[in-house]
Amino acid sequence: MFFTYFGYFVAALLLSVILTLAVRKIAIALRIFDIPDDQRKTHKTPVPLLGGIAVYVSFWLVVLYLLMHPIYGIDIFKTKLIGVFIASSILIIMGLVDDVKQLSAKIRLAITAVAALVAILFGIGLEKVTNPLGGGIINLGNFFILAEILIFFWLMGMMYTTKILDGLDGLVGGIATIGAFMILFLTNTAKYFQPNVGLLSAVFAGACLGFLFFNFYPAKIFLGEGGSLFMGFILGILAIIGGGKFATALLVMAIPILDLIRVMAVRVRKKHSIFKGDREHLHFRLVDAGFSQRQAVILLYSVATIFGITTLFLQSRQKLMALAFLVLLMVIINIWLVKKENPL
Q1: Which of 22, 68, 161, 190 is most buried per CB count within 10 Å?
Q2: Whether the Cβ atoms of residue 164 and residue 223 lie closer than 8 Å to each other
């Protein structure tokens, strides 16, 4: 099975490298750039956008091949993937339009919500989850509406977390790659063995990593709006179809998710729009505190990797403890940053 995963991982990675180079040339020719503003966009010169298209196309080309040439004994959710494809296409098209002509935050939110609903309508949902307190199984069959609402907010949360993360070079691509690998590893353990989810995770990891070669600091191309949403969407989908592997994705993404919640609370308290961009997010604050872009990104990679690895051997209740520790870590980091920002 390892060689199967590796082969499709490499195929997605090579496709992503080739397509990223091609998309970069197209973006330059069409003059679709992210223009620096010395505030949130601190790159020195205009950087081509549309990188998310390369990740999207490389992922779906390999998945299409898998659908046309199925591997014996591995069912990769054909009907559900049709919905995921339609939903992700909506995100990429919206992102393309936004990169060319900026859409309002409310329109982007509405379209993103539609994409999440499309995935749900095509069968992306939960039938059961592991009880985090007792390790048993909670059957959600009798709580259909509640389960669908949970999935909707999970997908929206994952998409907006990766969208917000896309502030430093390579941050989203690296975190998404780490998350995909963690789901891949977990779904190949004896307890959670799911080769279909593992295969899709390997493909997604390859597509993200191929792009990351050109997006790590100093970035030669950016994801764009659609690309950052797409990465969060697919990572969220993998967690769902992996039988509710929320803990895995959550521990990888915990710091960014907690930071998103904190920033929204700060904006509400200050009576600012929750959609208004600023430098309040953790990755910007780390840079403002003296970290280089590379140092800040590698630090966040390290936290995601360490806590992602814990999902491979911790039980459900222990994962809750790990999440509680991350909340404490977030508080400590925030206190340290406040002291750096307001020295006596």
Answers
A1: 161
A2: no
Q: Which residues of the chain have pLDDT under 50?
A: none
Query: 195-215 vs 2-30: helix axis angle to the nearest 10?
Result: 40
Contact 175, 165 (CB under 8 A): yes
Beta-ladder partners of 129:
138
Which residues make beta-bridge pairs with 130? 137
Q: For the chain, what are the domain ranges?
A: 2-341
248-296, pLDDT tens digit by residue? 788 888 888 888 888 888 888 877 777 776 778 888 889 888 899 999 9
- pLDDT for the residue numbered 156: 95
CA distance 100 to 92: 12
- Alpha carbon of 226 to those of 74, 83, 108, 313: distances in Å? 30, 17, 10, 34
Residue with structure tokens 């990679």? Answer: 301
